[in-house]
């Protein structure tokens, strides 16, 4: 819809797409409950192309649930989620095709322990997205090369550090060249010494223009690296703004209290 001239415009070359590109991700009034627990109570925000958005909030505030709704691991009860021009909450849309457009990395248990790094990285591309093995392996080796892990292609996960495992998981998430990368607390299970190498990889992806929505408790990283902070509280969005606006300048007592815990 964004590529067509608006109705009623006399100049057919006036295209919305130039000034108003569709966001990569748009949530509109998303609601999700588990039993009587309302976890998401009307969530609306956007992630623009090339933007890094940090999703913050206390444990239990619904960050993972929100990400699972985006990745179609959970169905929303109400509201819409748009990936580009696709309403991914429309049950008629092909779920595997949507998932190929979204890369996901979780906190832990990302790699299968009984498979080599190369097999881990290529598995979904081959089994779910029906790539030829040669194509998948070539792409995987290129990605592993880029993160300095090509020499580990035939290693097993337990031969890697936790930081290396998460970097491999990120490489795997990039296999299908997704429009959006979802990172859900990817450093929370790591030894403090290994957090930096994983966050550095996120910084590199940002520099390459990757669009990222990341849930994290790494506040100084969020302040430094995120273009925007979305702060969740009580199932709604309490704040949505630049790191400076939300983390340094908010007048909201609950927001100030939340960030005071991390100083
Ligand atoms: P966060 O990632 O911000 O810590 P979550 O999205 O994991 O928060 O959890 C939000 C709330 O939803 C919590 O109260 C949690 O117990 C509940 N919850 C999450 N997943 C489920 C589920 N599958 N069934 C029941 N309750 C759930
Ligand atoms: Mg979570």
Automatic annotation (TrEMBL):
<dbReference type="InterPro" id="IPR027417">
    <property type="entry name" value="P-loop_NTPase"/>
</dbReference>
<comment type="similarity">
    <text>Belongs to the ABC transporter superfamily.</text>
</comment>
<keyword id="KW-0813">Transport</keyword>
<feature type="domain" description="ABC transporter">
    <location>
        <begin position="25"/>
        <end position="259"/>
    </location>
</feature>
<keyword id="KW-1003">Cell membrane</keyword>
<dbReference type="GO" id="GO:0016887">
    <property type="term" value="F:ATP hydrolysis activity"/>
</dbReference>
<dbReference type="InterPro" id="IPR003593">
    <property type="entry name" value="AAA+_ATPase"/>
</dbReference>
<dbReference type="GO" id="GO:0005886">
    <property type="term" value="C:plasma membrane"/>
</dbReference>
<dbReference type="InterPro" id="IPR003439">
    <property type="entry name" value="ABC_transporter-like_ATP-bd"/>
</dbReference>
<keyword id="KW-0067">ATP-binding</keyword>
<keyword id="KW-0547">Nucleotide-binding</keyword>
<dbReference type="InterPro" id="IPR017871">
    <property type="entry name" value="ABC_transporter-like_CS"/>
</dbReference>
<dbReference type="GO" id="GO:0005524">
    <property type="term" value="F:ATP binding"/>
</dbReference>
<feature type="compositionally biased region" description="Low complexity">
    <location>
        <begin position="1"/>
        <end position="14"/>
    </location>
</feature>
<protein>
    <submittedName>
        <fullName>Peptide ABC transporter ATP-binding protein</fullName>
    </submittedName>
</protein>
<dbReference type="InterPro" id="IPR050086">
    <property type="entry name" value="MetN_ABC_transporter-like"/>
</dbReference>
<keyword id="KW-0472">Membrane</keyword>
<keyword id="KW-0029">Amino-acid transport</keyword>
<dbReference type="Pfam" id="PF00005">
    <property type="entry name" value="ABC_tran"/>
</dbReference>
<dbReference type="GO" id="GO:0015424">
    <property type="term" value="F:ABC-type amino acid transporter activity"/>
</dbReference>
<dbReference type="InterPro" id="IPR030679">
    <property type="entry name" value="ABC_ATPase_HisP-typ"/>
</dbReference>
């Amino acid at each position: 819809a964004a590529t067509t001239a608006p109705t009623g415009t006399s100049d057919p070359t006036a295209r919305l797409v130039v000034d108003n590109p569709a966001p990569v991700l748009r949530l509109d009034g998303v609601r999700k409950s588990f039993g009587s627990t309302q976890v998401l109570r009307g969530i609306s925000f956007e992630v623009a192309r090339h933007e890094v958005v940090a999703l913050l909030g206390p444990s239990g505030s619904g960050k993972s649930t929100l990400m699972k709704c985006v990745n179609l691991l959970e169905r929303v009860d109400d509201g819409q989620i748009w990936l580009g021009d696709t309403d991914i909450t429309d049950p008629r849309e092909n779920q595997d095709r949507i998932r190929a457009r979204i890369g996901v990395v979780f906190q832990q248990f990302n790699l299968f322990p009984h498979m080599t790094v190369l097999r881990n990285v290529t598995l979904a591309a081959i089994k779910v997205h029906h790539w030829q093995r040669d194509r998948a392996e070539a792409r995987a080796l290129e990605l592993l090369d880029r993160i300095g892990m090509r020499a580990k292609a035939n290693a097993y996960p337990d031969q890697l550090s936790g930081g290396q495992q998460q970097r491999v998981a990120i490489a795997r998430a990039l296999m299908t060249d997704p429009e959006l990368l979802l990172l859900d607390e990817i450093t929370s299970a790591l030894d403090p010494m290994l957090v930096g190498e994983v966050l550095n990889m996120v910084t590199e992806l940002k520099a390459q223009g990757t669009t990222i929505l990341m849930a994290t408790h790494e506040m100084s990283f969020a302040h430094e690296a995120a273009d925007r902070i979305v702060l969740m509280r009580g199932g709604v969005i309490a704040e949505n703004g630049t790191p400076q606006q939300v983390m340094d300048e908010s007048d909201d007592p609950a927001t100030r209290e939340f960030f005071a815990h991390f100083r």
